[in-house]
Specification:
- By secondary structure, the chain is α+β, with helices and mostly antiparallel strands.
- It has one domain (about 45-154).
- It has helices at about 1-30, 90-95, and strands at about 50, 55, 65, 75, 110-115, 120-125, 125, 150.
């Protein structure tokens, strides 16, 4: 009888060990259900921000200036202080950073009235633009185009 109880106890112990190992091992395997999972890109780290722009890191250029949504800001070499020369077709590729009239302006930011009547933000007097081929926050695809477009960076 003792022998039967001992054998029964050993079998029970083996079943428990097997079940525990099998159960814990199933959690360590990746499941095939993960194929359809969409991973979200994380937003780049914001280094500084205010009501008009933020400073974000760029692997290509170092810290760059973007609008508050992460769209990179550019200046146009052919502009002069307070005057935009980017009109019509130019504005399709390089949309003006349109200003809001009810925002407190940080240092070095001003608002100019374009010849088409729109209000546009300016950095140290130079009108600010976006590049239409920048698709993701922090893209700098317009840097150096025509040797007249420059990302604002520190």
């Amino acid at each position: 009888m003792k022998k039967s109880l001992l054998i029964f106890g050993l079998i029970l112990l083996l079943v428990l060990v097997y079940t525990t190992v099998r159960f814990s091992h199933s959690f360590s395997k990746p499941t095939t259900q993960q194929k359809g999972v969409v991973q979200m890109k994380t937003q780049p780290t914001v280094m500084a921000s205010n009501s008009v722009y933020q400073v974000m890191p760029s692997a290509k250029l170092g810290p760059i200036f973007t609008d508050t949504n992460g769209k990179t800001l550019y200046t146009y070499k052919l502009d002069s202080e307070g005057v935009s020369k980017c009109m019509a077709g130019c504005l399709k590729a390089w949309p003006a950073y349109q200003a809001s009239s009810n925002v407190s302006l940080p240092q070095n930011i001003s608002v100019l009235r374009r010849s088409d009547g729109l209000l546009q933000y300016a950095w140290k007097g130079m009108p600010l633009y976006f590049y239409s081929n920048d698709k993701q926050p922090g893209d700098v695809n317009g840097e150096g185009i025509g040797k007249v477009w420059s990302v604002i960076h520190q």
